[in-house]
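This protein record is not my work; I was only asked to verify it. The record follows directly below this note.
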Amino acid sequence: MENFFDNTLSAEETLNISTLNLAFIGDAVFTLFIRDHLVKSFDTKSGDLTKRCAKYCCAGYQSKLYEKLKEVITQDEMELMKRVRNCKTNQKAKNASLSDYRRATAVEGLIGWLYLRGERERLKELLDLAIKT
């Protein structure tokens, strides 16, 4: 098994990963980033942290982030987000509109793509926007 912390893939290798799988890993990276931020920012009970986390880690919030990201991402990053947003899925949004759900999935796909490519500086730059949005 390869080292978890040494998971960088080439640009070509990331092209072979399905868009929904990019979103799958991106969801985990986004959630971990938010949880890390909350633990370092608030000295409170875990239940309160969970409530705060839920405000960020939901389709509605990530859909707003999608709109913010459109202003600062590269053409390649936008093309990837569009590919993820437009992919067919059998999943249904629980507490969000279908359009919010698709934009949120696009954000998660971009995060997963950057993470797997090892683009940590760019990833942090874009994730920092999530805290400020």
Remarks:
- The mean pLDDT is 90.
- The longest helix spans residues 19-41.
